[in-house]
Amino acid sequence: MGDLTSLLERLIQHQVAFVVVGGYAAVAHGCTLVTMDVDICCDFSVENLMRLQDALSDVNPVHRMTPKRLSLCLTPESCHGLKNLYLDTDLGQLDCLNFVLGIGAFPIVRKRSVVIHLPWGRCRILSLDALIEAKQAMDRPRDKEAVLQLSVIQEMQKRNK
């Protein structure tokens, strides 16, 4: 599975603008599902992508969806037009998205996120309501299981208020 928390720590330390949106966010909300990667929605500006590259520079990031598994080697020019990055690193897989199905692009995702406090800094994760919407929109078997668990967590939170 890798060291997914170290991936997040690096992103936070390098001030990458991102929101955790996938299974890792579900786990942070209390799901018991296992996740094998970190899915983030991030700002795809040149500046932010260069910070992302700096954060990962010493953990051998490669494009995992390309046959040759090319190393991540961004330039300001190559950042233009990027929509997603699917990376393998020495610490694990990192999927960087600029859009979340059922929610929208990064500015909307950020507005629908909450801050959690981790030992190495603050981190944004998709809010419980928004995560349920995103998982419902994905409509995959593993997302359906996550929706079941997240809905129970949501109901328990409502009762406790």
Short description:
With 161 residues, the chain is of the alpha+beta class.
Q: Which secondary-structure class do the elements indicate?
A: alpha+beta
What global shape is seen?
Answer: globular
> Helical residue percent?
40-55%
Beta fraction = 15-25%
Overall pLDDT metric? 94
- Summarize the main sheet: 5 strands, mixed
Q: Which fold name fills CATH's third level, the topology?
A: Beta Polymerase, domain 2
Low-confidence stretches: none
Enumerate the strands of the largest sheet in spatial order, edge to edge or round the barrel: 1-2-5-4-3
Question: First CA to last CA: what distance?
Answer: 36 Å
Order of helices and strands: HEHEHEHEEEEHEEHH
Count of helix runs: 7
Beta strands, count: 9
Q: What is the count of structural domains? A: 1
Text of the CATH class: Alpha Beta
If classified by CATH, what would the architecture be?
A: 2-Layer Sandwich
Radius of gyration: 16 Å
